[in-house]
Specification:
CATH superfamily of the largest domain: N-utilization substance G protein NusG, insert domain
Strand order of the largest sheet: 2-1-7-6
Radius of gyration: 23 Å
Largest sheet: 4 strands, antiparallel
Strand content: 35-45%
Helix content: 10-25%
CATH architecture of the largest domain: Sandwich
CATH class of the largest domain: Mainly Beta
Distance between the termini: 58 Å
Length: 127
């Protein structure tokens, strides 16, 4: 056991490593590319859909609720709860939502913000 054998990389090993790195980089770049579907902000109250706005246009949405008016802010492709009259303000600390499927919920004021994609195909099915 006193012998130490060294393994050398062969040409095939180097080609395989380079191909895997290329594929990983391509997959990563594809996820970051601007080819994503346009996203929409949907704001819901206890009565249902209150308002819908494109995520790429800055603006504010004032939303009535049982405790008072909440303020949803859309800035730089992100939606966040800028103000809410709820006691703990947990919805304001949830951070910004920017990807389809993400949401912000204010349970006491019965307001929710959901990011939706313009795609209509099925993302997942459960039984």
């Amino acid at each position: 056991m006193g012998k130490h054998t060294r393994m050398r990389l062969r040409l095939f090993d180097l080609v395989l490593i380079a191909a895997l790195l290329f594929l990983a980089g391509f997959w990563w770049a594809l996820g970051l590319s601007g080819s994503r579907d346009p996203a929409w902000v949907q704001v819901y109250t206890a009565q249902g859909l209150y308002r819908e706005a494109p995520l790429n246009e800055d603006g504010d949405i004032r939303v009535p609720g049982p405790l008072g008016e909440s303020l949803v802010e859309i800035r730089s492709g992100e939606a966040s709860m800028a103000w809410s009259p709820c006691p703990n303000k947990l919805c304001m600390h949830m951070g910004a939502a920017s990807r389809p499927g993400e949401s912000i919920v204010c349970v006491p004021n019965r307001v929710s913000v959901v990011i939706r994609s313009a795609r209509t195909d099925t993302d997942a099915v459960s039984y």
